[in-house]
Design a protein that fits this description.
The protein is of the alpha+beta class. It folds into 2 domains: 35 residues, no CATH class; 67 residues, Ribosomal Protein L30, Chain: A, CATH 3.30.1390.10. Helix content is 45%, strand content 14%. The chain has a 3-stranded antiparallel β-sheet with strand order 2-1-3, with helices on one face. The longest helix has 15 residues. Keywords: Plastid, Ribonucleoprotein, Ribosomal protein. One of its GO terms (biological process) is translation. One of its GO terms (molecular function) is structural constituent of ribosome.
């Protein structure tokens, strides 16, 4: 890599979470892009035909993503508190996450943990899905 790119990478490594979030916002505004819609665009899904496999060879899914689908405005503060307790996000980051639904709250978690998180969020009025 060139010295210029190495310098940029080193500067990015030193950013705080808040600074990184602000950088993303600025990049989105300046270049008129949406960083939230770009996720593994290079990933190719291969079709699978599980009908030909014996039933004992079909793998059961062991990792789940918990997605915050919708937050009623009247319940936003309660949901925000639960999101902060489930994640280690600060107030500003958790607020941004809650306001930009649908968003993944927890990635690659066990089914039990995913169900527990879903129950906690639904108790305070959020709509949650497990994928």
């Amino acid at each position: 890599m060139s010295d210029k790119i190495n310098s940029i990478i080193e500067n990015l490594k030193s950013l705080t979470l808040l600074e990184a979030a602000e950088l993303v916002k600025q990049i989105e505004e300046v270049f008129d892009v949406d960083a939230s819609s770009v996720s593994n665009s290079s990933m190719v899904m291969m079709p699978t035909d599980n009908h030909n496999l014996p039933s004992n060879e079909i793998e059961e899914k062991t990792e789940f993503n918990v997605v915050l689908e919708e937050v009623p405005s009247a319940k936003k503060i309660a949901v925000l508190k639960v999101v902060r307790s489930l994640t280690s996000l600060g107030l500003k980051e958790a607020k941004e996450l809650v306001e930009s639904t649908p968003k993944i709250i927890k990635e690659s978690t066990s089914k039990e943990d995913a169900e527990e998180i879903k129950v906690k969020l639904e108790e305070v009025g959020a709509k949650v899905s497990i994928k």
